[in-house]
Amino acid sequence: MASTKRRGVGGVAVVPMAVIRLGVAAIVVLGAGVIGARAQLRMGFYDESCPAAERIVGEYVRQHVRRVPTVAAALLRLHYHDCFVRGCDASILLNSTGAGAGHGDGGSVAEKDAAPNQTLRGFDFIDSVKGLVEAACPGVVSCADVLALAARDAVTAIGGPSWRVPTGRRDGTVSSMQEALAEIPSPAMSFPELAALFASKGLGVRDLVWLSGAHTIGIAHCSSFADRLYAGAGANGNGTDPPPLDAAYAANLRERKCRTAGDGVVEMDPGSYLTFDLGYYRAVLKHRGLLRSDAALITNAAARADIAGVVASPPEVFFQVFGRSMARLGTVQVKTGSEGEIRKNCAVVNSH
């Protein structure tokens, strides 16, 4: 199949009551769209039509991610960006095309070419997994399901949490750069802006807080937080700006990692960016969250309390709340039944 070339690829611990409450509350913070979608997906969707599908995906992911663990962050981010635009329908994987070709709205520039997606990796990886699944069961398993399963399996492969991934998603046939620009959360957003955008996807404030925890295995380009390093960024009095970066940390970054505003990358969880742990949240509480959207988490009292509660708890608590939020994310605005199609090649719509 054609390859899509892209840039870069003994005692019982006591859990605080606040954390227990947030875990229960998170279960009911669901939008109507998410509930409806979940009802149409199901565990073991391919048990009869392609019983080896999930095993094929899992084995390939484990084999490669254990060798190159940075792939986990790439696949998790790819799935995240996909679900925020037209739902989890693999539209992020489509190539740009000639005017109108394969695009119901006449657009020709796809999501993957929008500025927020220029640093995405993992397209070729998903193509490879899809190729193996196609060889076993042609035209049966969607690219959207392959991506959702691969993101989960990759996180598990590096020692992170697992979560339920019901399947039955269909692939979308429209991919729009303009929609990506409008729908993908920006690293410069305030907490109210982020909360509103998440709410539009049927996701609650706690989903915002816990999904941000994916940054424990991520990196950030210096250009994405240059304003916090070089422009004396801080609160401007509107009540929504995050606190500035810890001064000593910012100075260290300017000296070692981000000598200019546009160059370099920085681990979002320094020292353990290949380990799925609580380091990212500890950094945020210390004013070392790189992006404005990271720092924004502690401008909301409830979010700050939730983060502090999880940091003071056993790691399993974070795993549980993260997994729940990922399961919800994976059901956002999915296409099922007769909607969309099952793409043979994840980069292009089928010929009809």
Q: Could you characterize what this model shows?
A:
The protein is mainly α and 352 residues long. It has two domains: 31-184, Peroxidase, domain 1, CATH 1.10.520.10; 207-324, Peroxidase, domain 2 (Orthogonal Bundle), CATH 1.10.420. The chain is built from 15 helices and two strands. The chain has helices spanning 17-28, 32-40, 53-65, 70-83, 123-136, 143-157, 177-183, 191-200, 205-211, 226-230, 247-256, 279-285, 292-295, 301-311, 315-329, and strands at residues 219-221, 265-267. Helix 3 runs antiparallel to helix 5 (123-136). The two termini are 18 Å apart. Its EC number is 1.11.1.7. Its main location: secreted. The active site is at 81 (proton acceptor). Heme b binds at residue 215.
Please give a quick description of this structure.
The chain is built from 15 helices and 2 strands.
Q: Features of this protein?
A:
2 strands, hydrogen peroxide, 352 residues, peroxidase, 43% helix, heme binding, mainly alpha, EC 1.11.1.7, 15 helices, two-stranded antiparallel sheet, disordered N terminus, 2 domains, Peroxidase, domain 1, single chain, Peroxidase, domain 2
Measure the end-to-end span.
18 Å
With strands numbered from the N-terminus, the spatial order across the biggest sheet is 1-2
What best-fitting shape do the alpha-carbon axes yield? Answer: globular
> What fraction, in percent, of the residue positions are helical?
40-55%
Domain count, please report it: 2
Largest sheet: 2 strands, antiparallel
Count of alpha and pi helical runs: 15
Total count of strands:
2
